[in-house]
Amino acid sequence: MTNDAVLCIGRISGCYGIKGWVKVRSFTDPPERFGSYQNCRLKTRAGQQAVVFDQCRSQGKALIAHIVGVDDRNTAETLRGLDVVVNASELPALDEGDYYWHQLIGLAVWYVAEGGAKVRLGTVKQMLETGANDVLVVAPDEHSIDERERLIPYLVGSVVKRVDVDSGAIEVDWPLDF
User: Fold this and answer.
1) Do 32 and 82 reside in the same domain of the chain?
2) Domain range for residue 127?
3) How many domains does the chain have?
4) What are the pLDDT digits (tens) for 132-158?
5) Which of 130, 133, 127 minimizes the C-alpha distance to 159?
């Protein structure tokens, strides 16, 4: 995925008050990071509309935000359900060996047997957050050893042995029959 890729960082889930504030379901980690993005757009049926969030804060367990030019509840209500997107290039740089989920989705997953022989398990279809650790959802593809979908813990070192985004591969130590 390129840095020009469009990523969803949140969704407007409703209104807050009468002055145009919206409730936001943040997909960022931590959720408060949502308010730090500068070049946000709303994804509408007609395309993408640039918006500026001039205020963003936690309100109880929710995140609320104000969009410049949206100053009443009726206007805010029209935004319910819209995704807030940014370009991947807007994301903060990560430490070496850390990856954003969008970088892992689409990579081929390989089991490396003793002696170095590789067996393709499939392709990362999505990622799951379980609380204990993230999980790779690996779907079978035309090159995989079988037709099984696998849920593989994203445990770097013990299960995930190597990630190479440039070559499009993840190597794992995971039983073929699991």
Assistant:
1) yes
2) 101-172
3) 2
4) 899 999 999 999 999 999 999 999 999
5) 133
